[in-house]
Amino acid sequence: MNQKTVIALDAMGGDYAPFEQVKGAVEAINSREDIIIHFFGDEAKIKEELGKYTYKEDQVRITHTTEEINCNEAPAIAIKKKKDSSMVVGIKSVKAGECDAFISGGSSGAVLVGGQVLVGKLKGVKRAPLAPLIPTAKGVSLLIDCGANVDARPEHLVQFAQMGSIYMENVVGIKNPKVAIVNIGAEEAKGNALVKETYPLLKECQGINFVGSIEARDIPSGDADVIVTEAFVGNVILKLMEGLASTLISKIKEGMKSTVRSSIGGLLVKPALKETLKTFDATEHGGAPLLGLKGLVVKIHGSATSKETKNAIFQCVAFKEERINEKIQEYLTPDQNA
Amino acid sequence: MNQKTVIALDAMGGDYAPFEQVKGAVEAINSREDIIIHFFGDEAKIKEELGKYTYKEDQVRITHTTEEINCNEAPAIAIKKKKDSSMVVGIKSVKAGECDAFISGGSSGAVLVGGQVLVGKLKGVKRAPLAPLIPTAKGVSLLIDCGANVDARPEHLVQFAQMGSIYMENVVGIKNPKVAIVNIGAEEAKGNALVKETYPLLKECQGINFVGSIEARDIPSGDADVIVTEAFVGNVILKLMEGLASTLISKIKEGMKSTVRSSIGGLLVKPALKETLKTFDATEHGGAPLLGLKGLVVKIHGSATSKETKNAIFQCVAFKEERINEKIQEYLTPDQNA
Fold this sequence. Notes:
Number of strands of chain A: 11
Largest sheet of chain A: 6 strands, mixed
Largest interface: A-B, 61 and 61 residues
Oligomer: homodimer
Order of helices and strands of chain A: EHEHEHHEHEEHEHEEHHEEHHH
Structural class of chain A: alpha/beta
């Protein structure tokens, strides 16, 4: 545990990069001495941002890169061609073992492809799912998979349940996390072909706490800790939650400004409302890890603030300290580790 | 148009039946003389409720039934066995042409099965989708399909787009409605196998205004009028919207009560907030029609109030007046109608 955790940070990925990235990184290293941030990106820009802060220089490294991958590029081609991009060089540093984890707010597609192609999967892992934490009335749940690999098979979903359980128990600290599969009814007989085939496999699966189906209506109440689904549905859930929450909140704010009476009331409820909405703010919990890789790759929002960046850094430290990859490996290939 | 519209109303289906059903029906017939409500259910109970109101007796009919289908029963078996249930007798009245439409707040599964098995599909219709209107920032969108027939094929989705367009244009009054397919990215190349196969078919489809993919995040803003997806994803979207809205609103209300200051503010914003949330209340727009049947079957919420019941009745009148089924039939089998 004495060894420092080295975080590869994509300084160019995200709407407010490198400003928010550098700010978040400095906040992280100023609160913990056991972290080293290794920036990948335009050295001059990174140094300019760093110049605004006070921090211990031995906790910072920079690798200058000359290219950037943007969100409009085809991910697979960008990863292949832009060999000197902050994303490719940064991810390769994890593969090479120089860094423990890579964090980026850049193109989701490129992070997903880069993680799988450049880092590679752990032995026995069939697919690497993207698993964001989503806010619920009770705290957070892990929604697994929200990645780009659609049309999953039952055996993929079973591994998602296993890896998700290990993550929630060890990184988020939820003992014996409740695992549920997204379905359109509570009964075992309901669902599409994929869910019907997966359900009995999850029921038989050792080492997870499978509680059955979860209807989408019960996801926001936090009825399950690990919410298993294939990536298309996961992506729909994740984005609908973001879109609906923002539409509803802006409608409510607009409504509060509609009359003089409500405007005064709006000013009075503002602090309490802010506090309430904070509990529904996913950025409190870091980024979305791509699980099952020989290393760790974490996607943060394109709009990530310094707070989200900092929390993602702490999340990577916990991932390493809790030996998540070793635990996944032991669980999936027990014979080889016996 | 002089002919009256006869609505078969399941007086026993729903949490507050027959109270809310009878109340909504009376409100409907007292505001329009061209409607006849034909109740199916326990005659004594229906008459007891009717006794509370003043209305023209020639606008009301009652068929006494002795059985009820509840939500815990397997739909297909219940429809087959409970031949004297309000649901089965009511749906059969549409099949027989005695009634124009059937409305029920009872078991969703039984309504779906009953509609398809007892009424039957229009010629050329491959699948009958359940198509609720969902509230958005701009008004409403039609989410098609949210039914129980999962694992759809591309040709099903194309028909959903066609039937949905006819419904939105003629019943809701949106000229040249924008049709989009739910996807995990905006580009044509994205998506799962079903979406990738369906996309080019929708692009080529004559008579609809296909605008491309819609990401779940953009559904609440109302970017499309007809939102096409297979039933599993549609069901997830519908239920997640309901669940998240209710969780968020109760959190906000709770937050407003957290301090004295916010409680006072809460009282002041209450009327404006109520007005705002009303725009997000789907019950304003009636129920969810099961499209493509030789007749009309509409599912209202189990918790349907008199308002939802009344609006569903008006929706059925518009459906008949606008000759939706004839339009669907002409569109899908143009040669046979030429």
